[in-house]
Amino acid sequence: MLMQLSARWAQVEIAAAALLAVSVTLLILLNVVTRSLGAALYWVDELAIYAMAWMTFLGASASLHYGNAVAITVLTDALPAAAARLAARIVDVLILVFALFMLWFCWRWFAPWQLAQAGFDVMAFQGATFNFIYAEPTTTLGIPKVWVWSVMWLFAGGATLHALANLAAPRTAPA
């Protein structure tokens, strides 16, 4: 069941990443056209960068499910099959530890508990914690950067899910 949930979530991540890749292309094309017409839209650059960042994090998380992340296999290629499987399990555990740390860092950075304690009053939250994550605006779009940074929650959650699923699944020798 965990592997099915991981597979479905990876499909959502890939679909969103593909949509974001198309949007980056269209935004860059829009930027080229408007600049050539002498009427540049400066917010387009920023939006394209944020779309690419989201695409990257979602794609990276999905690659953990599909097992097609970039890897250096010089050591594992030289190992016997049993040792290669053990090395792959160790990597799975390290990925899970990394993903759990990412969740913890997101919890500390976004501080949802402290925000709730402040009654979801951003000004009171900032005064109590000196954390300005919910108030800092993007440069040209003018939206709170917290919406851009929220991809970190999706990445950390997806990476945790995929790492747990990989650990629960039987492991074969790396290809």
Automatic annotation (TrEMBL):
Source domain of life: Bacteria
Keywords assigned: Cell inner membrane, Cell membrane, Membrane, Transmembrane, Transmembrane helix, Transport
GO molecular function, a single term: transmembrane transporter activity
Transmembrane segments: 48-74, 86-110, 146-169
Chief location: membrane
GO BP terms in the entry: C4-dicarboxylate transport
Cellular component terms per the entry's GO annotation: plasma membrane
Family stated for the protein in its record: Belongs to the TRAP transporter small permease family.
Protein name: TRAP transporter small permease protein
Upper taxonomic lineage: Bacteria, Pseudomonadati, Pseudomonadota, Alphaproteobacteria, Rhodobacterales
